[in-house]
Amino acid sequence: MKNDTVDKLVIFLAKRDGIDKLVKTFQYVSKLVHWHTEATHPDIANRIKQWEVASGLSRKAFRTGRFLTGFNALRRSPGSTPTFKFLAVLANAGEMVYFFFDHFLWLSRIGTLDPNLARKMSFISAFGESFGYIFFIISDFIIIREGLEAEKKLVTSKEESKDAKESIRKIKADRVMRLMAVAANVADLVIGVADIEPNPFCNHAVTLGISGLVSAWAGWYRNWPS
Fold first, then answer.
1. Could you say which residues form the signal peptide (predicted)?
2. Nearest to 193 by CA among 207, 182, 175
3. What are the distances in angstroms from CA 181 to CA 8, 110, 127, 187, 223?
């Protein structure tokens, strides 16, 4: 059992998304620790803040070229109906804007580009991110609803065949994964809103920290080898 867990961890960390979720955990744990220690231990808080900033910047560097995955997602999974095709185009377009302008945000924050561009790039990136997540969430809820309807039909038919049981198992497994996706996207939407329209709730360190960890751990669950 222990060796199996280690093998899965190795596979998980070999993925770009696996590394991203691990570093994202570092980033938002450090944000919460910084908030907790800022008043009582300023020296420790400053060191933790550096860890948070370094984690955020390293994630941006590691996501170089990630915006191209949107094209691949549309090519591989265009959607089964015109509605899903439309939602997929909007969702992936928003995500591509997010990842594309995230490159310029990273370059401006490390001083390669004019640092004054950071705020504008952050706004555009967060707007694209939030726009895309809204349509990802809608798509997942529609598929979850369709899955519940299909499962209900199988249950009410009282079919005891192996194929029926397997279909129900797949529907339930897919529902769990989609609920994890919804949790991650809602959490990231909160983080995006904090950049688009700063407000006391979304921009509070606890809100951002918890949202970041929900997103990271939901993504961790979805990417963990089965």
1. none
2. 207
3. 21, 31, 19, 10, 11
The least confident of 25-29, 57-61, 84-88, 133-137 is 84-88
CA distances from 184 to 21, 112, 127, 166, 209 (A): 11, 31, 17, 27, 13
Question: What's the whole-model pTM score?
Answer: 0.91
Number of other CB atoms surrounding residue 104 within 10 Å: 18
Give the Cα separation of 160 and 29 in Å (integer): 47
Length, in residues, of the chain:
226
Distance CA(29)–CA(23), nearest Å, equals 10
